[in-house]
Design a protein that fits this description.
- The protein has a domain at about 60-129.
- About 60% of the residues lie in helices and about 0% in strands.
- It has five helices and no strands.
- It has helices at about 10-25, 45-55, 60-80, 85-105, 120-129.
- The longest helix has 21 residues, at about 60-80.
- This is DnaJ homologue subfamily C member 28 conserved domain-containing protein.
- It comes from Neobacillus vireti LMG 21834.
C-alpha cells in the first residue's frame, strides 16, 4: 500500500524505499529462498499445520481445551469408581458436555467428539486419550 502524506499526495519513491527495506529484512531470515519441506506438501494438510504449529510452540485453543476435557473426564471416572453422589457426578458431566460443545464449535469437523453420560463415560475416556 502506498504511503500518503497529510495532503493526500502519494509519494511513490518513499513506498519503493520501504518495500525494498522490507524485502532486505526478509532475506536475512535463515529459511529464505529454501524449498518447503516435502512433508508439508504431502498427507493431511491440517495435521501438517498442527504439527508445524506445535514445533513452533503454538497450540490452537481447542487443543488446550481438549486436554482440559480429558482431565475432567478422568476426574469424573474417579468419582464414579469412588461411588460419589450421583448429583455431584451429574453436575460434573454437565460441565464437561458444555466444554465438549465449545470444543466441537472450535475444532475441525473430523476431530469433533460426542457428548458423555454416565453410561458411556469409560468409552469416551478412551476416545479422549
Amino acid at each position: 500500500m502506498a504511503s500518503k502524506k497529510d495532503d493526500g499526495h502519494v509519494n511513490w519513491m518513499d513506498q519503493v524505499s520501504k518495500d525494498y527495506n522490507l524485502d532486505e529484512e526478509m532475506k536475512k531470515h535463515p529459511g529464505f529462498g529454501k524449498p518447503l519441506p516435502s512433508r508439508l506438501l504431502s498427507g493431511d494438510i491440517y495435521s501438517n499445520f498442527v504439527n508445524t504449529a506445535k514445533e513452533a510452540g503454538y497450540l490452537p485453543p481447542f487443543v488446550a481445551l481438549q486436554k482440559e476435557i480429558r482431565q475432567e473426564i478422568a476426574k469424573a471416572l474417579k468419582l464414579k469408581e469412588g461411588n460419589a453422589k450421583e448429583s455431584e457426578l451429574s453436575n460434573l458431566i454437565t460441565e464437561i458436555n458444555k466444554k465438549i460443545k465449545k470444543y466441537n464449535s472450535s475444532c475441525p469437523p473430523s476431530m469433533q467428539r460426542g457428548r458423555i453420560g454416565l453410561d458411556n463415560i469409560e468409552n469416551q475416556y478412551k476416545i479422549w486419550e
